[in-house]
Design brief:
One of its GO terms (molecular function) is transferase activity. It comes from Mortierella alpina. Its cofactor is pyridoxal 5'-phosphate. Belongs to the class-II pyridoxal-phosphate-dependent aminotransferase family. BioF subfamily. With 288 residues, this protein is α+β, with helices and mostly antiparallel strands. It has two domains: 135 residues, Aspartate Aminotransferase, domain 2, CATH 3.40.640.10; 116 residues, Aspartate Aminotransferase, domain 1. It has eleven helices and nine strands. It has a four-stranded mixed sheet. Strands 4-6-5 form a three-stranded antiparallel sheet. The two termini are 16 Å apart.
């Protein structure tokens, strides 16, 4: 919900001490981090220390289902004992064709420029928005958020943005705890810098009109969490990693080819599992 980054290195350091296994949901990391969009675990070089990774097809791939990447014994166990999988209708041919097309784009590197653009828009937004530091979520992912107290405030700001053609939705209590209501901004590669600037200007104008003081200086550089710093350090040590993304609707999150996953540094098999929902490929509003 916050678009923040889990401290995976710190988490995996605890696994041996407690005899635990870790499963990582890479839904929003797939395509944004790691070589060929393999996700955060790959980005941080932790494939051999994580038991399983779930890469969904329902984000930037605009399909449904997922690939569960893990050891062969996990695949065999789920095939034989996972009742939701056993008794689910298999995905349609059209859906498989959609996923395959997205795979081909990722493998060919056709989406590299798109994800680089997304990261540029993220940096531009955070470098230019001057809302109070405690109200801006500490995220370096495409998911950004401005937190305000109360459903009425986030409803009002969201409505102002929607009226301007910016598809920014409120996240209200009880979806989030009281006092943590926010407008949730999902940047994607179809956005332009001009649209992001328009977003910033509308937000800051609304703040002034409602008596909320803005910062004189942007605190973006001091807003990075330790997890973000670890990601940046990891990128420096994996300079050959290629960030790949397929943009869909409001989110930027694709997945690597199943066959490519099977040939990764971790002996792994990919298992297609059914998902509960899909994201529309054609948004009714075209902005943020």
């Amino acid at each position: 919900m916050d678009g923040d980054i889990a401290p995976l290195k710190e988490i995996v350091d605890l696994l041996d001490a407690y005899g635990a296994h870790l499963i990582v949901d890479e839904a929003h990391a797939t395509g944004v981090f790691g070589q060929n969009g393999r996700g955060l675990v790959n980005e941080m070089g932790l494939e051999n220390r994580v038991f399983a990774r779930l890469h969904t097809f329902s984000k930037a791939l605009a399909s449904n289902g997922a690939a569960l990447v893990g050891p062969k014994i996990l695949k065999e166990y789920l095939i034989n004992y996972a009742r939701p999988l056993i008794y689910s209708t298999f995905t349609s041919f059209n859906n498989l064709a959609s996923v395959k097309s997205a795979y081909e784009m990722l493998i060919a590197g056709e989406t590299t420029e798109l994800v680089e653009k997304v990261h540029g828009l993220i940096h531009y937004f955070r470098s230019n928005i001057n809302v109070p530091d405690h109200m801006l979520l500490p995220s370096t992912s495409p998911i950004q958020g401005i937190v305000m107290d109360g459903n009425a405030k986030v409803n009002a700001l969201s409505q102002r943005l929607i009226q301007a053609g910016l598809n920014v939705k409120p996240i209200r209590f009880p979806t989030v705890p009281k006092g943590k209501e926010r407008v949730r901004i999902c940047l994607h590669s179809h956005n332009t810098q001009e649209q992001v600037q328009q977003l910033i200007e509308i937000v800051q104008t609304w703040f002034r009109e409602n008596g909320i003081e803005l910062l004189e200086n942007n605190l973006y550089n001091s807003n990075s969490s330790n997890s973000t710093e670890s990601i940046q350090d990891s990128r420096a040590s994996h300079s050959n990693a290629t960030k790949v993304s397929v943009p869909v609707t409001l989110q930027v999150v694709p997945i690597e080819d199943v066959a490519e996953v099977s040939r990764s540094s971790t002996p792994a098999s990919a298992l297609s599992v059914s998902a509960l929902s899909a994201i529309s490929q054609q948004p009714t509003r075209a902005k943020l």
